[in-house]
Amino acid sequence: MIAARLHHYHEPLRLDELDEPTITDPHDVIVRIGGAGLCRTDLHIQEGQWAEKSGVQLPYTLGHENAGWVHEIGSAVSNVVVGDTVIVHPLVTCGLCRACRAGDDVHCENNRFPGISTDGGFAHFLKTSARSVVKLAPDLHPRDIAALADAGLTAYHAVKKAASILHPGSRAVVIGAGGLGHIGIQVLQALTPAEIIVIDPSEQARALAGEIGADRTVAADGRQVDTVLELTDGRGAEAIIDFVGEGDAVAQGVAMLRDAGSYYVIGYGGRVDVPTIEIISREINFIGNLVGSYNDLAELMTLTAQGKVTLHTSTYPLEAVNDAMADLDQGRLQGRGILVADPV
Amino acid sequence: MIAARLHHYHEPLRLDELDEPTITDPHDVIVRIGGAGLCRTDLHIQEGQWAEKSGVQLPYTLGHENAGWVHEIGSAVSNVVVGDTVIVHPLVTCGLCRACRAGDDVHCENNRFPGISTDGGFAHFLKTSARSVVKLAPDLHPRDIAALADAGLTAYHAVKKAASILHPGSRAVVIGAGGLGHIGIQVLQALTPAEIIVIDPSEQARALAGEIGADRTVAADGRQVDTVLELTDGRGAEAIIDFVGEGDAVAQGVAMLRDAGSYYVIGYGGRVDVPTIEIISREINFIGNLVGSYNDLAELMTLTAQGKVTLHTSTYPLEAVNDAMADLDQGRLQGRGILVADPV
Amino acid sequence: MIAARLHHYHEPLRLDELDEPTITDPHDVIVRIGGAGLCRTDLHIQEGQWAEKSGVQLPYTLGHENAGWVHEIGSAVSNVVVGDTVIVHPLVTCGLCRACRAGDDVHCENNRFPGISTDGGFAHFLKTSARSVVKLAPDLHPRDIAALADAGLTAYHAVKKAASILHPGSRAVVIGAGGLGHIGIQVLQALTPAEIIVIDPSEQARALAGEIGADRTVAADGRQVDTVLELTDGRGAEAIIDFVGEGDAVAQGVAMLRDAGSYYVIGYGGRVDVPTIEIISREINFIGNLVGSYNDLAELMTLTAQGKVTLHTSTYPLEAVNDAMADLDQGRLQGRGILVADPV
Amino acid sequence: MIAARLHHYHEPLRLDELDEPTITDPHDVIVRIGGAGLCRTDLHIQEGQWAEKSGVQLPYTLGHENAGWVHEIGSAVSNVVVGDTVIVHPLVTCGLCRACRAGDDVHCENNRFPGISTDGGFAHFLKTSARSVVKLAPDLHPRDIAALADAGLTAYHAVKKAASILHPGSRAVVIGAGGLGHIGIQVLQALTPAEIIVIDPSEQARALAGEIGADRTVAADGRQVDTVLELTDGRGAEAIIDFVGEGDAVAQGVAMLRDAGSYYVIGYGGRVDVPTIEIISREINFIGNLVGSYNDLAELMTLTAQGKVTLHTSTYPLEAVNDAMADLDQGRLQGRGILVADPV
Lengths: 344, 344, 344, 344
Description:
The structure is a homotetramer of 344-residue chains. Chain A is of the alpha/beta class and 344 residues long. Chain A has helices at residues 40-46, 51-54, 98-101, 142-145, 151-163, 181-191, 203-212, 224-231, 249-255, 276-281, 294-305, 321-329; strands at 2-6, 14-17, 28-37, 60-61, 66-73, 85-88, 125-129, 133-135, 171-175, 195-200, 216-219, 237-242, 257-265, 271-275, 285-288, 313-317, 336-340. Chain A has 2 domains: 2-150 and 292-340, Medium-chain alcohol dehydrogenases, catalytic domain (Quinone Oxidoreductase, Chain A, domain 1), CATH 3.90.180.10; 153-288, NAD(P)-binding Rossmann-like Domain (Rossmann fold). Chain A contains 12 helices and 17 strands. In chain A, helix 12 (321-329) links the parallel strand 16 (313-317) and strand 17 (336-340). The A-D interface holds A 25-27, 75-76, 78-79, 94-96, 98, 101-103, 105, 130-131, 293-295, 298 and D 25-27, 75-76, 78-79, 94-96, 98, 101-103, 105, 130-131, 293-295, 298. Strand 15 of chain A pairs antiparallel with strand 15 of chain B.
């Protein structure tokens, strides 16, 4: 099969011819990839930002946002059969550690993260596990929902945490209405009664935000802190949901946060740098957010099936992966980019 | 009456002769002070750290940790009578805003904070409100429990938040076993089944910590991060409860924090400065903590009455306030310093 | 002024000429009634069901669901001024007990309940307290939202509890789409992503339910348990929200409840009668629900202002109170009945 | 091997000679039983109370409270090795359904319950699954902790739920200080700051309760409701934890429950039968409790290892199972009865 692999940091991916993965553990599931989402994290990996954290050995196959059809299963797999349409939870988890048993798959003590720490889905086939596949209606096409596996799941997870503090009359500020943000807006709309204020520099992104649930959109024009304070009685918003996490975003987001409110960190690249006296005198919180759990993914797929969440995507052939990455890097990519491999 | 007042930042307090406060609102309560706790925040106020945040006009009377006896009450006061022994919740709150009505007194939209933003309790008398006095058993002496009004209440509030994530088998690291920390340890012991690990540079403080509930004590000897990791299977603690909040404490605390864990910021003076990639990849949280609610104070007084929390204090006459502040500043003060005014 | 008063159980109310209430406490607020909702509880009071629980002395004025304009205020009232349009939280609370301070107004240790335990709002004027009035936009007419003060608030309170267990993919069964139920459906729609299944014997009520947010409506035709099980994969619903609470409703509701689910009791008149072996082997919960808190009422008024909750009402002159009660009793009243007194 | 099996309802168990269980699924774990707890549920099974609910076919082996040593493992088992000392979570669960993935093992959609719905541990060997074994320190003897697998786990689970409403100053009433109750008292003591009031007819049980953490003990002498009300300012307790669930216990427990409080149903045999008007006007809750989760069991084993929970047991040879059941039925059994099979 063909796989798009990173051989050296700071270089384009190479399209390698590899053997198909094979079943080696009774829980293995091999998925024929129907769509693989492209993520800003793929750029960060290419730049080496994750080299130390992931400990991965080059070369390896990127792609951590996958959907497809079950191609082969191990002897202990009981929840899917060959041919099922599935979306793939990004982590492979053990099911036996405390975290897995508490519903917190992402902190599995024995996890692997295909596309981050081992071979991922920019390929014809992906090896994952029975615990990582969510069965879907057969009429869904993987390329249309693949981006929910990571971008959507991360946005869902963060918004679900925020929902617990968002009562009628409260406000949520969404910083960044791109790949994750536009899903986050829809999930806020589905799960909470909060007023939704969206900040983005792109007029097009703000227009989309307005269509999918934003009550207010604010240009990132240098006056956005003042604007948000005006929209919130001078007090700021109960929740800041930051899909950017770099540049000025954090400092501005903190300035828009209401006392006793919570700041949800999702985007990354910059720093949270705040005096402790400000944290305690305002009694504000910073909440880290990684990808969601398997049940989160199943819930998000329910919202999608109900039409409450829809994705905006652009499709590329797998072979055009480096073009797609360049488009993402240079802001030319509308919605989420999806790589589609030809059938074998 | 005599009151210890700040006339200029960076200068000692002056002992002024002032008129006693009088009832001007139907909810007013005037308390004859029996004990007023001295707090590191008083030093910070003197240094001007709170000048901008509090907006207070100099001169004014410090002292935000007060207990005494009810001296006079306004016409609408129904919960105490003259002569009652009371501990004084540090804030004067309205009871009508959303925060007050949600049990979150501290974020009252109309609050005053005697000793921070208006005249406090380093004096013979303090004016507060019906909503701020907790009635105590008459045999308690105010000087013995005054420090619970702020130091104790802040520690209680933070530990109560942490309690929700501290299951049997989890660990809480307490950074700093001083005035607040030694109460925090006792509250952890009373409210949670967690293993308690205490870090302090002072051998004496560690010895006290061991007596009042710490399962492990660790010297702040430069190896404390490694030591805590060794004590926690290399993974760190579920909760870091930081009563220091300055110097190396935060960076070290973050290094001791388990993935998916929470860092409770109580001490202040330094910064939380962490890359967003670390916050999201480890999915860690930073939780700000100010003083607790009125109900928190009542609960803490219950623990005290049950013998589960005891205070270690050193008493000074009100007139020796500047000596007491110097002792606190230079680390000579054992336990919490309490100022006691002579009876009128 | 005119007031509709109960002189003897099981007899119609009498229209008495009474003195207007006067300010006797600094927190008193006198409201000129613009609309007073009629509630099934008024029928239950007339039948003597509340005689023992409320301990009220006859005669007294009914009416616990009130809105109007501030007419006069006591000296300690700071949150409203004469002329403000207000909705009246049904209880008068102290603001000082643990329950009030925890945001749980309804369990105030010193509460009075106008219309239940003291004179209510079937009159030109009502005496309440500063803590019980929620200020509204001046263009709202009290008669249009009075029913939210109790019927709406009770439905809101119960649904808000249920919201915490209602994730995407879960189901809520609403039993009874009448005065409370039709508000409950709208609140479910606003606060949760659950699929909403509504059971009612009336075709008209089911049609309304469908218009305001029910995903499915089910006739109470004797087959409703089977129908709900068919709609829920044979497992039942995560939440049963029972606005009936008498007759067969409870037994049927329990049969529709999923294992590990919760049954919200709101309507009353019958019994919960379930073997303990069923409660433990299915691990099901029964959650009592009284009227909501002041903050709940403010949140509900926000949803109303946002157009997410609308009321269906029928208006009667105050003088026609006994006709209105007869219409309610005999099922002729469409929506919630509202009594409107002429201006004095 | 020998197994104690139920051939006919209402008859003694028979000691049958059976083949040892064998590995048939890659996740199977065969445990050599070191101790099997005897439970009141075993009497209820014998009486046919569970016949319909469990759907089990007679004859089968009883025993759902098991600990021992790993004897043989399937090919996919990675968390234990042969020879490990283990306690056995009572259910065999799939790990793949929503409940399992939410940490709620007990409501696994594909569960089996050895000793209830399939062959249990009153035998030399038990077949369970990798997901059901908690590894213990090798120096623990299974007979000393086997009763924690079900009795202890059920008590732990209920108390953990109650802990969330038990603040300092609150009261928990424990009804019944027998096999489950005496563990519940110790868990209350370990997890909560509540005052613990224990009701039991047996003077010996009350004496034990006092030694292990009860603040007050009350004889079940007909005056217990009045006594509890006297101990709780006439208002009742925030939590009633009912390990009896039959006879007068429920009616009395409801009379001891504070308004807005919660009643935890654990014991069974009787009914919860309460008017809906009482449930709503007092806003009280009834919370069903089955056995706890795997993580609950691990937490309970931690408390045991820390010396915070200790068991009181009486040991019988497996062959004396019917004597043990008679002793339990007739109140002659002190502590929890444990059956110990001879080594093969």
